[in-house]
Hints:
Elements: H1 4-18, E1 24-26, H2 33-39, E2 44-50, E3 53-58, E4 63-67, E5 73-78, E6 88-93, E7 97-102, E8 106-110, H3 112-121, H4 133-140, H5 147-152, H6 162-172, H7 185-205, H8 217-220, E9 251-255, E10 258-262
Helix pairs in contact: 1-7, 6-7
Amino acid sequence: xxxxxxxxxxxxxxxxxxxxxxxxxxxxxxxxxxxxxxxxxxxxxxxxxxxxxxxxxxxxxxxxxxxxxxxxxxxxxxxxxxxxxxxxxxxxxxxxxxxxxxxxxxxxxxxxxxxxxxxxxxxxxxxxxxxxxxxxxxxxxxxxxxxxxxxxxxxxxxxxxxxxxxxxxxxxxxxxxxxxxxxxxxxxxxxxxxxxxxxxxxxxxxxxxxxxxxxxxxxxxxxxxxxxxxxxxxxxxxxxxxxxxxxxxxxxxxxxxxxxxxxxxxxxxx
Length: 270
């Protein structure tokens, strides 16, 4: 599932391609046919992302809400759209560009009240400049759940997925099994600031890089990481490999129904 930086990149891209102009909207697959007819020909006023949720705001008050889930994917191009193929849930077209969406977990229209309710059920997004990180800490400090589980809970922090959470905890020197109520406010401020920095970098470069310059391949004389997610990381999906800082083999275990990765030496709770 794409992490929050990808959704913010999509919001920026769709704003660039379509905002401020009328858009022709259809649903070749048919599953979004009624919604497509409702917004077809309207002006796309703005786009935004909140965590892993993408929102297209149309003139007249309707908002297109998209959640890619595990399988959702956009394709785009310039000029006339190509011949339809596959299960296209949503097609957007103007005189210069086209955009197709396949396989999303959600593709629906929301009214203003439903948009407000969506925002209300999501935690603060590190990529939104005025997000209140302390609102997340007020939940975390009262919880006996693991830090990994809390940080991946989209109602606590919106947008950070397994990679960002795993890597932020390594960089903070905290184990994923540590409980929320054991986390100090100073530790939380460090994690929040780091998530904001890492995810902003992800928006800028289009991939997740979490290692400091001293631990990059060229600095350490090691081969670059080869993984479908791309980017250089400390512990994510590096089970059994030496920690880039202390050489201890990286451990993994199932935690909160997800694979957790950590260094048992670098990540020891105080």
